[in-house]
């Protein structure tokens, strides 16, 4: 059993040890439902941190907020609205997002080299070598085609923010922004890589506090981009849009079946995990979990457009993007120990993205089904030009957020107003150089050329998107300069609060210094925030000024780059290719511009002047040193050629990112309204490097058309850079208070662990005299025995301090330490705390005797002191009794039970009876008891003198009054809102989704295979508090046993993968709701006599290319009866025409992917025969072929030679089968069931049988 580890925050433990009395719970704080205040600013980027709280889950001290956030940086033209609204994001459990550097880490495209008779890789991703299918794969990769940069992964979850890649080697993660987290990557071991092959991605990260984050729910992206040039260029997207109902399985199946050299496979950029969402967060204290459930949202063809490239004013190429596909994960439900959060989406079709969802409602319920909080969202649309009806002219707009209770009563929430300037169509070219609207230029898209300016030898600043002294304009038709009026289009300008008060935001363009001149651009910054009361009277206004001395304080890490590299560029900058869209844009803290100084002035109340670390101080490091490998082929570049590219900014392509050091507060000066300095803060930071590795980029092309040479066969240029695992931590802070009697200087310095960014020592000096110091001990420190229970905490990455020493002027005052022990069942928990004064011996101050099953402390005391015991209820989530003067054993004896499990699901009335029994049985103990409304607050508190106080709440769970035991009013609260929302809450209908998880049990000798399937009902809507009754179909010979688990789950053991039955859902009174819900799980596996796939014709998936007699190909799903397909006469060894006489298209569940040495992958059923050299007809499962068709065929296996039709030579060629892989998915398949003449055809060029009127031929060599 895994050890259960509990760690207490030190100050909590030590506060317990300092008191031998019960500390009663305090009354609930009285607060407004929502508070109105200024939103905090990120002055470094000029953005307001606007967050609307919805609800916060507390998991053993870890706060998991559910909220909305708004980006005040402006609305980019290409931005699509989220399910909440334009520029709004819904924050739930967090995610891992990926940034591709170089090639995708799993990139793998190849081409067969006829001369060398081998497959050569055109793309070979950073991690591709972990998945070698052939032992010689790694030798077939020209260095120019090998990915040398590991993709970046950004982690953002509650209590966890970090960044990593896989540069640690063999698929292991290297944490770049060091936090001390332990990162498990599925690429690092065979088990994880096997899951990746089955499209399962599972990252697991353990935070320094020991919380375990599982990331399993992946998204999926596919973009179909076709490069065209010369006579192939067209101004039309020829392909018609894909269906919005397209599934990932259908998309993947199509491309897995397509030969690698087809245009579809070649131009489709697939990313099987661009984002992975949090699936669960588990506490190390109690093993409680918060689980996140998602539904799929399919965003299809929302990015259709053409991007053109120009040289010297003429179009030379373009990229058509006719298709895009994004499978997004949309949060559906969050389940936490005390309740659940439910998310509801509108059924109507969105006007801006027809296949996307719109968030309608959020409900927070406790485990009793009581509504704790209801939130409803009101939307409209931002509308572009009145003449445009295209969805890309619309954007979803969040108008209001309001609140409701379980009875349908409503409360005002927030309303939002936006700038009314209309935005252009998404992907319009009416954009400035950072993507914000800059007005209509009225230039047709076919003539749109961004105006770029050039000056030789300026490195990364050689090509500018704005005019500048000394730079000459290249050919261009449209200015990229920003316009503040249009840049404000659609941006949030006013938030009205529940109280009727409001906050307004005013904006201006960002600005930055470039070669000592001020340039405007990069979106918006906040110019001011103004607060108004409910009567519209201004209460506060804060202005923000972004200047250093008299000039702008804005700095940039680099400019957007529009230039496509070409071999030859003239001294005037001619012959470069200009792209219509920017290709890259460096950022600092997520913004183009960062400010080194900002003045924050509240009108009539003084101001603050802050200075930050910026790009000037910490620019990105481009190492311009390079090496040229000449190889054995013509023609290597000269050093002068490379240096010119460096001078003009094309190289190097990699750099050391210094953004970790930027945006840190260096100095802060606080002035009063008379401009008098009253406080000054000075901060210093330390840069800590924990690991370092070199990375490089290779520039050059490998020519593999005629031959391929292993090793460095072709010339290339190599640049290198450094990749660090690092932190940038506050090293010291000095605070100077300027008082009338003189200055008070408080200086604090910080020392950190050398291997982790954890504080080891804090030293504080006041006025250069009195010095205090704190030193911390961690489980991994040398003074802690690693074999002890305390030392074992580090094995679980629980890195909180276990000891602390306090010094005054370097003299040890006190020291405190917590010792852990194993309390059975593998639970490591605090056993006692010790304390000493000065250099005296440590003495035990508090003993922790007993814990419950969730790790809650249930008995503690001082040595030889009176015991204090605690009783927990509500599923061990809430303290319901504190008992001074009785042990935990005394409590069990008083209640005449062995444990307290029976209390956990009791109603308050039943709990009240048990707590009174406890008082009666322990008359000499001091007892405080508490009853709750779960997730609301205390309902009843009774002290040791049996004086009771009751608390009442309204429908919105706000405290309305407090009464004594006689019903007399102690206090009363009233809530009045000036705003009156005008909406009606519509109850959500009952929604039931039954999901199944299956486990295949390997049989013991002589016993059949069995399957264990657990069915879970996911129920939303209705009134909640449901009961469930599961029933299997009777009789069902496949089911051998049933086992009922929790109320909404049951488990079945079956002889095959086929289980079915019904589910009744009842309300609290036992009434059946709506109807019985039937469920069925059926997979392609033999079950008794026959099975799902045994009576279905064998087939290929959609997208399989069928060779026609006119030497063209058709997708198998597009072939019609009467079509002429190419067949092969095995007796005469001649190609002949065959007529398609019947076509079938059944659904299958189990398929096999056969991969051949030229890269072709065929996906078909297990029983489909191929013609194999030396064997004749052979299939993946000959027994299945025999059973279904009474055909005797051989076993096809890797190494077998099959026959490929070559369209150029019109002859057959032998190719080798290299691998096979089984897959499970429900998919529509196709087969040419009857083909005249020879009863065979060519699928993706490979000779296969149609399995009708089968004739066994003798194999011919």
Please explain how this structure is put together.
Helices cover 6% and strands 46% of the residues. It has a 46-stranded mixed sheet that branches. Strands 68, 71, 72, 73, 74, 78 and 79 form a 7-stranded antiparallel sheet that branches. Strands 61-62-65-64 form a 4-stranded antiparallel sheet, with no helix packed on it. A hairpin with a 4-residue loop joins strand 71 (1124-1129) and strand 72 (1134-1144). The chain is mostly beta strands and 1261 residues long. The protein is globular, with a radius of gyration of 35 Å. The protein has 9 helices and 81 strands. Among the domains are: 1-31 and 769-851, no CATH class; 618-752, no CATH class; 852-987, no CATH class; 991-1082, Immunoglobulin-like (Sandwich); 1100-1249, Endonuclease - Pi-scei, Chain A, domain 1 (Beta Complex), CATH 2.170.16. Residues 1088-1213 form the AXH domain. InterPro entries: Ataxin_AXH_dom, Hint_dom_sf, Intein_C, Intein_N.
Give the helices and strands, then pairings.
Elements: E1 4-5, H1 10-17, E2 41-42, E3 47-48, E4 50-59, E5 62-70, E6 88-91, E7 95-99, E8 108-113, E9 118-124, E10 152-157, E11 160-165, E12 174-175, E13 182-184, H2 190-197, E14 203-206, E15 212-218, E16 220-229, H3 248-257, H4 263-267, E17 268-271, E18 275-282, E19 289-300, E20 305-311, E21 314-336, E22 339-345, E23 359-366, E24 371-383, E25 394-404, E26 410-418, E27 453-454, E28 463-464, E29 472-473, H5 484-487, E30 492-496, E31 502-514, E32 517-532, E33 538-545, E34 547-548, E35 551-552, E36 554-556, E37 563-564, E38 577-579, E39 593-595, E40 597-602, E41 607-612, E42 626-629, H6 639-647, E43 665-671, E44 677-699, E45 716-739, E46 742-752, E47 759-766, E48 770-777, E49 803-808, E50 811-822, E51 827-837, E52 843-851, E53 857-861, E54 868-873, E55 878-884, H7 888-895, H8 908-921, E56 926-933, E57 937-942, E58 948-953, E59 959-963, E60 969-972, E61 991-1001, E62 1010-1020, E63 1027-1032, E64 1039-1044, E65 1049-1054, E66 1058-1066, E67 1077-1082, E68 1100-1101, E69 1105-1107, E70 1113-1115, E71 1124-1129, E72 1134-1144, ...
Parallel strand pairs: 1-51, 76-77
Antiparallel strand pairs: 2-3, 4-5, 5-6, 7-10, 7-18, 8-9, 10-11, 11-12, 13-14, 14-15, 15-18, 16-17, 16-21, 18-19, 19-21, 20-21, 20-38, 21-22, 22-23, 23-24, 24-25, 25-26, 26-30, 27-28, 27-29, 30-31, 31-32, 32-33, 33-40, 34-35, 36-39, 37-38, 40-41, 41-43, 42-45, 43-44, 44-45, 45-46, 46-47, 47-48, ...
Domain AXH: 1088-1213
GO molecular function, one term: RNA binding
Pfam families: AXH (PF08517)
């Amino acid at each position: 059993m895994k050890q259960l580890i509990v760690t207490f925050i030190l100050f909590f433990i030590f506060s317990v040890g300092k008191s031998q009395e019960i500390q009663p719970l305090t009354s609930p704080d009285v607060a407004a439902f929502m508070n109105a205040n200024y939103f905090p600013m990120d002055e470094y980027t000029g953005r307001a941190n606007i967050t609307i709280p919805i609800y916060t889950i507390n998991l053993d001290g870890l706060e998991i907020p559910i909220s909305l956030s708004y980006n005040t940086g402006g609305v980019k033209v290409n931005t699509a609205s989220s399910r909440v609204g334009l520029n709004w994001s819904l924050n739930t459990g967090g995610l891992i997002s990926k940034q591709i550097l170089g090639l995708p880490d799993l990139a793998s495209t190849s081409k067969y080299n006829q001369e060398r008779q081998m497959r050569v890789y055109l793309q070979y991703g950073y991690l591709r070598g972990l998945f070698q299918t052939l032992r010689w794969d790694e030798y077939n990769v020209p260095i120019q085609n090998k990915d040398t940069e590991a993709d970046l992964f950004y982690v953002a979850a509650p209590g966890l923010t970090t960044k990593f890649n896989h540069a640690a080697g063999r698929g292991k993660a290297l944490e770049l922004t060091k936090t001390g987290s332990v990162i498990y990557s599925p690429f690092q071991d065979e088990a994880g890589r096997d899951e990746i092959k089955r499209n399962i991605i599972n990252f697991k990260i353990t935070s320094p506090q020991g919380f375990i984050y599982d990331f399993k729910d992946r998204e999926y992206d596919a973009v179909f981009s076709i490069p065209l040039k010369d006579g192939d260029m067209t101004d039309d997207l020829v392909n018609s849009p894909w269906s919005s109902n397209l599934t990932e399985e259908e998309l993947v199946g199509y491309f897995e079946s397509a030969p690698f050299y087809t245009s579809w496979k070649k131009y489709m950029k697939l990313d099987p995990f661009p984002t992975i969402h949090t699936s669960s967060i588990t506490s190390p204290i109690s093993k409680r979990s918060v689980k996140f459930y998602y539904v799929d949202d399919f965003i299809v063809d929302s990015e259709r457009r053409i991007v053109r490239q120009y040289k010297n004013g003429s179009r030379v190429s373009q990229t058509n993007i006719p298709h895009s596909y994004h499978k997004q994960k949309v949060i559906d439900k969050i389940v936490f120990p005390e309740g659940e959060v439910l998310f509801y989406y509108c059924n109507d079709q969105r006007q801006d993205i027809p296949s996307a969802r719109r968030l309608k409602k959020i409900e927070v319920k406790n485990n009793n089904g009581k509504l704790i909080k209801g939130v409803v969202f009101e939307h409209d649309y931002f509308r572009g030009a009145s003449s445009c009806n295209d969805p890309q002219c619309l954007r979803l707009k969040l108008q209001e957020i309001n609140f409701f209770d379980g009875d349908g009563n409503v409360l005002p929430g927030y309303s939002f107003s936006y700038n009314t300037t209309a935005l252009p169509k998404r992907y319009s070219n009416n954009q400035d150089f950072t993507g914000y609207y800059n007005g209509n230029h009225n230039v047709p898209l076919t003539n749109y050329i961004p105006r770029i300016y050039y000056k030789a030898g300026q490195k990364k600043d050689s090509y500018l998107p704005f005019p500048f002294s000394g730079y000459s304009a290249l050919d261009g038709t449209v200015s990229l300069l920003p316009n503040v009026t249009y840049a404000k289009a659609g941006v949030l300008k006013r938030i009205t609060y529940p109280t009727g008060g409001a906050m307004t935001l005013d904006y201006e363009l960002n600005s930055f210094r470039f070669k000592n001149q001020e340039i405007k651009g990069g979106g918006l910054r906040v110019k001011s925030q103004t607060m108004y009361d409910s009567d519209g009277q201004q209460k506060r206004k804060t202005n923000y000024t972004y200047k250093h001395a008299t000039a702008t304080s804005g700095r940039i890490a680099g400019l957007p780059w529009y230039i496509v590299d070409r071999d030859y560029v003239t001294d005037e900058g001619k012959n470069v290719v200009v792209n219509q869209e920017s290709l890259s844009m460096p950022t600092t803290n997520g913004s183009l511009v960062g400010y080194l100084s900002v003045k924050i002035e509240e009108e009539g109340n003084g101001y603050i002047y802050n200075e930050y670390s910026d790009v000037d101080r910490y620019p990105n490091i481009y190492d311009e040193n390079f090496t040229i490998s000449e190889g054995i082929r013509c023609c290597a570049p000269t050093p002068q050629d490379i240096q010119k590219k460096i001078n003009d900014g094309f190289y190097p392509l990699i750099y050391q990112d210094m953004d970790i050091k930027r945006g840190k507060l260096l100095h802060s000066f606080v002035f009063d309204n008379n401009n008098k300095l009253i406080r000054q803060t000075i901060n210093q930071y330390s840069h800590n490097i924990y690991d370092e590795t070199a990375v490089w980029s290779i520039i050059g092309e490998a020519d593999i058309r005629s031959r391929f040479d292993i090793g460095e066969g072709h010339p290339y240029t190599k640049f290198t850079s450094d990749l660090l695992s690092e932190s940038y931590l506050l090293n010291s802070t000095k605070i100077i208070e300027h008082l009338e009697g003189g200055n008070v200087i408080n200086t604090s310095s910080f020392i950190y662990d050398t291997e982790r960014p954890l504080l080891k020592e804090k030293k504080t000096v006041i006025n250069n005299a009195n010095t205090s110091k704190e030193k911390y001990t961690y489980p991994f420190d040398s003074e802690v025995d690693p074999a002890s229970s305390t030392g074992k905490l580090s094995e679980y990455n629980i890195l909180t301090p276990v000891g602390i020493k306090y010094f005054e002027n370097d003299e040890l005052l006190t020291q405190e330490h917590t010792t852990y022990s194993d309390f059975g069942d593998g639970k490591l928990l605090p056993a006692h705390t010790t304390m000493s004064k000065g250099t005296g011996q440590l003495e035990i101050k508090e003993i922790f005797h007993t814990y419950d099953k969730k790790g809650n402390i249930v008995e503690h005391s001082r040595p030889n002191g009176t015991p204090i015991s605690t009783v927990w209820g509500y599923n061990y989530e809430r303290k319901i009794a504190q008992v001074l003067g009785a042990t935990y054993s005394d409590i069990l004896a008083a209640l005449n039970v062995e444990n307290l499990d029976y209390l956990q699901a009791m109603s308050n009335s039943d709990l009240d009876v048990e707590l009174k029994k406890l008082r009666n049985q322990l008359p000499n103990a001091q007892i405080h008891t508490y009853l709750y409304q779960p997730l609301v607050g205390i309902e009843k508190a009774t002290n040791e003198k049996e004086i009771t106080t009751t608390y009442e709440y309204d429908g919105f769970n706000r405290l309305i009054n407090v009464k004594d035991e006689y019903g007399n009013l102690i206090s009363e609260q009233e809530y009045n809102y000036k705003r009156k929302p005008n909406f009606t809450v519509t109850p959500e209908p009952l929604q039931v989704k039954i999901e199944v998880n299956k486990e295949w049990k390997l049989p013991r000798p002589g016993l059949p295979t069995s399957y264990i399937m657990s069915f879970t009902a996911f129920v939303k809507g209705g009134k909640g508090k449901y009961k469930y009754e599961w029933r299997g179909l009777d009789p069902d010979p496949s089911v051998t046993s049933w086992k009922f688990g929790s109320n909404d789950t049951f488990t079945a053991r079956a002889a095959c993968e086929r289980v079915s039955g019904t589910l009744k859902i009842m309300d609290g009174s036992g009434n059946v709701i709506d109807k019985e819900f039937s469920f069925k799980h059926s997979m392609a596996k033999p079950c008794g006599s026959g099975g799902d796939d045994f009576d279905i014709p064998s087939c290929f998936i959609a997208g399989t290319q069928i060779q026609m007699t006119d030497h063209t190909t058709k997708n198998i799903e597009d072939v019609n009866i009467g079509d002429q397909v190419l067949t092969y006469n095995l007796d005469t060894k001649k190609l002949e025409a065959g007529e398609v006489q019947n076509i079938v298209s059944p659904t299958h569940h189990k398929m096999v992917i056969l991969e051949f040495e030229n890269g072709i992958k065929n996906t078909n059923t297990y029983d489909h025969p191929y013609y194999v050299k030396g064997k004749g007809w052979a299939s993946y499962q000959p027994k299945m072929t025999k059973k279904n068709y009474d055909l005797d065929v051989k076993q096809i296996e890797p190494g077998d030679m099959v026959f490929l039709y070559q369209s150029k030579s019109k002859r057959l060629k032998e190719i080798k089968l290299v691998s096979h892989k089984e897959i499970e998915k429900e998919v529509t398949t196709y087969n040419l069931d009857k083909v005249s003449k020879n009863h065979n055809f060519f699928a993706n060029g490979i000779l296969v049988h149609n399995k009708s009127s089968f004739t066994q031929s003798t194999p011919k060599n």
